[in-house]
Amino acid sequence: MDKIKPTNSTRVSKYTGTRGKHAFDSEKKQKTYETETQQRREREFRDDHRSGRTDHHHKTERVSRRDREENSHHECKCERYSRSDVEYREGLDTNSACELRNECLVCSKGLRNEKEVKSERLSNDMKRAKDMKESKQNNNEKANTDNKILLKEIKELIMRALECELDGHLLEARMLYEESLTKLHICTATEKNEEFSESYRKYLGSYEKHVQRLRDQIEQNMFGCKIIEHIAIPEGTRGRSYEKLIGRYLNDKVTLVHIYEPYLTQSTHLEHLINFIEVLVKNCSNLMFVRIITRASPKLSKLQSEVLRDVREELQSGNISFNFQFDEELKKSRIVLSTGVVIRCRRGLHIYKPMSKYYKLGLYDYDFRRCESAEVDVYQGKPFSEAISKADRTELMESLLHT
């Protein structure tokens, strides 16, 4: 028998049950998935809600705690302010009470001791007046003492000036007279007694006239000087020590030397001065007076004064009178000898170059020192050491010693 072939319908029916089963399984899985998804979402929602509630609870708790802390802080602050306000008010009340009590005490004490206060004030006024009177008396006594000291110095200066003038030392006499006149002016200005002040003015008049005559005589001698030698010193030359330059004018006839040197402001300047004084003392055996007229050094004033004082002590030990004075208006250098010789140099004593090294030739012997470019002019005039005649001597003593 022929086999029967299955038809398409039979083939479809054969596989229809299988597809239906798969479809059912997929639907079931789909429902299960949806159910699980919904459950998961519900669970997540519940978890979120629970966590939200927890967060809200925590947040609420934090806020409430912060509010409680702020309220507590505010209460403490208010309490502190109120306490400090109370203390401040209590302090004010205490201070006002103390002040009121002190005022009351002062007022009551003033009312009780009014007479004592008046008597105390009166005694203080009397004591103050007495102190002022004593102070005034002390000042007057001090002024009188100073005037007495000045008068003593003035008399000594006048006696020395008169002695110099009588011996013919006109230059030194003029300087001493001028110094005594300056002190006499000070004494006249500070004198409280009118009688003494009037007598001082009288003496001033006579002294000023005499000093003016002496000045005129010296100036006349100075103007009558004539140049006798001109010495040119080239730059950098040697062999020009003070002794070789002007030693021939320094002899036994020189008894007085006045050195006008405005610049003694450096240590090298002082060295030049000492070397020149050594030359003077060595060559002028009859030297009696040496005077330095200079300007005060603004930087080396202490050293300048010490050196000049030391030189004065050394010369006084050799019976040579040494004096120095300061003249801030001095500008030109010159050396005046009692023999009428006047030496002028634009550089003054400082014609030598500074030494580059200390231990070098020329340290003691100035012939080895190199010179700056300079010119020296020597003038000869009438001697300043003419002795006064007996008639003039008597007249001078009568006119000046009546004090």
Write a structural description.
Residues 1-16 have low confidence and may be disordered. Among the domains are: 140-220 and 389-400, Phosphotransferase system, lactose/cellobiose-type IIA subunit (Methane Monooxygenase Hydroxylase, Chain G, domain 1, Up-down Bundle); 227-380, MITD, C-terminal phospholipase D-like domain (Endonuclease, Chain A, 2-Layer Sandwich), CATH 3.30.870.30. The protein contains eight helices and seven strands. The protein has helices spanning 8-112, 114-166, 170-190, 194-223, 242-246, 267-283, 301-316, 390-400, and strands at residues 226-233, 256-260, 289-294, 321-326, 334-337, 341-345, 374-380. Strand 2, helix 6 (267-283) and strand 3 form a beta-alpha-beta unit. With 403 residues, the chain is of the alpha/beta class. Helix 2 runs antiparallel to helix 3 and helix 3 (170-190) runs antiparallel to helix 4 (194-223). 17% of the residues are buried. Strands 1-7-6-5-2-3-4 form a seven-stranded mixed sheet, with helices on one face. InterPro entries: MIT_dom_sf, MITD1_C, MITD1_C_sf. Residues 1-16 have a biased composition (Polar residues). Residues 1-76, 118-143 are annotated as: Disordered.
